[in-house]
Amino acid sequence: MRASTKLAISTASIVATIAIWGVIGALMRQPELLPGPLAVFDAFRQMLTSGELTAAVGCSLARVVVGYVLGAMLGIATGIMLGRVPTVYDCFGGIFEFLKGIPPIALVPIIIIWLGIGEVSKYVVIAYIVWIVVTISTTVGAREIPILRLRTGAFLALGRFTVLRRIVFPSIIPYVLIGLRSGIGFAFVALVSAELIAANSGIGQIIMDARFSLQTDRMIVGLIVLGCLGAAIQMAFDFLISRIPVLKRVGQV
Amino acid sequence: MTRRLETMRSFILAAVGIVLVLLTWQCAALVIDMSLLVPTPAVVAQNMWAAASSGHLFADIAVSLKRLLVALALGMPVGAIVGCALGRWEVLDAAFNPLVRMFNAIPAIALVPFFLLWFGITEASRYALLFYTVSLTVLLSARQGVRSVPPLRLKAAATLGVTGVEAFRRIVLPSCVPAIIVGVRTAIGLAVMVVVAAEMLGAENGLGYLIMQARSHFIVADMAVGVICLGLLSVLLDRVFNRAVETLLPRWSVRRRVR
Amino acid sequence: MDQLAWKRLLVHQVSKQFSSGPCILKDINLVFDRGAFVCILGPSGSGKSTLLDMIAGFERPTSGRVSYDAREITSPGPDRVVVFQDVANALFPWLNVLEHVEFGLKGMAWAQRRERALAAIELVGLDKHLEKFPSELSGGMKQRVQIARGLAMDPAMLLMDEPFGALDAITRRNLQLEIRQLWLRTGKTIIFVTHDIAESLLLATDIVVLSMGPNARVRDRLTKVDIPRTDPTSPEFVECYRRLESCIEGLSADDETA
What we know:
The structure holds three protein chains of three kinds.
Chain A: H1 3-27, H2 37-49, H3 52-84, H4 86-100, H5 104-115, H6 119-143, H7 147-155, H8 160-197, H9 203-212, H10 216-243, H11 245-249
Helix pairs in contact in A: 2-10, 3-4, 3-6, 3-8, 3-9, 4-6, 5-6, 5-8, 6-8, 8-9, 8-10, 9-10
Chain B: H1 3-32, H2 41-53, H3 56-88, H4 90-105, H5 112-119, H6 123-147, H7 151-159, H8 164-175, H9 177-201, H10 207-216, H11 220-248
Helix pairs in contact in B: 2-11, 3-4, 3-6, 3-9, 3-10, 5-6, 6-9, 9-10, 9-11, 10-11
Chain C: H1 2-5, E1 9-17, E2 23-32, E3 37-41, H2 48-56, E4 63-68, E5 71-72, E6 80-83, H3 87-90, H4 97-102, H5 110-124, H6 139-151, E7 157-161, H7 169-186, E8 189-194, H8 197-203, E9 206-210, E10 218-222, H9 235-257
Helix pairs in contact in C: 5-6
């Protein structure tokens, strides 16, 4: 099927969906439940011009970035340790598997009690889950460094630190990138988790508030903005990675 | 080292790891010395025992588990079938993939308030959201599985006289089983997140509710009980799932290795 | 005409050009007898795989026709089974050896299918590995499975696209000898694509040399090759080898200056 035909069908389907949405919204007896696309667009415009949306997005984005960077850096360090030192892996590998299974939202109440409902608790929640995800991915990479490369380092009599810098780091890059990429999604989940429960600002707060004030149109705006934000960050990440030639050279998993 | 010694070694080290973590925890609790805020492992264990022996804990776990399993049982086949359909027919794919992608961009957790608003605080709303999450995840994996069947495989089938619908049944579907397995594994993890979130934001039972209850009473120890049970539940689900795959789908297991 | 075409493969004035691409093959004319072991020899890019694809039925010629037994070949089928080089992707990871070989057998009783499959498996020497899955097999064994799978179909001809190219030298040698034995035992028509001159001299009764693409043509044709196969020092072998080698080398040089 030609690309142009596919594009046509896709566009038609999106347009049809919006149209059906509008029709159902109009037909429903409770307009609060399903506002039509026009109502949602209105709400969007309103929130945008009042600056509310930009403030919320800025807030949420800042939290994600800080938490993500913290978690990622810790994750890479922990992952290398777990991956290169078999004793550490045997000791703590299972614990990470356990921690991975705890949804971030379950930890939010505890962290709020400890650290309050301010920014710090949100950074911690996001950093925590990103740390776990990146650690797991990096560990796999660090454990699977081709033995040939390590032996080369050995027979070249490279020092410990040099081996780390020149063999381990480059070898684990594909795995780290996989972890970093999936970390983005998890970071957003953690962000929303934190903002839904400790709702004082951010997109999550908009969504939560809209629930209690029954303003579904604002809620939908929040959801769409959230989705776009997450997708945009992921695309930005992919774009950045593709632009750095070193990373491409290092090869695929 | 022999295999047995190795397994024993791993086991011992894992135990050492747990002990170290508990010790650190204990020290932190002693240092901070606010028993309500940072309970010692002993207190948490006590609370867990109390909740378990009274039956409350298991009731909550069972409720959460039931929601999970029902949603999986319904969402998996639907997601797999629709995903395969999208992978198979370009027209359907062109029409629905963009929509699927867009919906997938919204984290399922963020939809909890929406579903609670729509369906109210009812079991139906939780199931609806869980079903949505599971089927969407499995759908994407199944679609990817169908689309990434090596074309050479279909050529080989064609040269043996197997084409069309027969080829779809005998080549494409078995080929995408590994992808669907990965999708289901992901879906399980997501479903746990969603069920906990739904229970925390609008429910009267379940592990999520347990945690929120403990929060309203400021009993961190009980919250820790909930969290630990969640972690253990996830590990258990993962293990059971892997075992199920090994048993029910041995042909696609990864255990076999090339000589 | 029918007499001449009976059970023979005819490639008549075949040219192949992919849409908006260069012309890969030009005016190929070939006739293959039943029971021949034909090698299509040529350097990379000479369109030999494309020719095989057309005989198999995966591609249609842009002009001319390929026919077998006076019927034009328009689609792949079990009378012209292909053995591919990329055996990892040509096998089905969820089927074991026996199931693989039984795969294409249809329209017969279970017992008969089992019998046919076992016979083919025995021919390639894998009868002790019936329950193994592809991930448990070495490269050479995987290729044997592919061959057995094809042979079980009792095809009119076996088409092999550089099947041993991805194997190590020793396994390759073993499989070459085995395929020759197989041919001697079954008398099947085999069309074998390769770029290895020695391989073609070991195996083939007919050797077709294609020139470099684009516009590849038949540059040379050896028929009824009758030389000591396993003695590369014999004068007949050497003479053939030199002839083919200069043919191929001459072509490459020609195309470079052209």
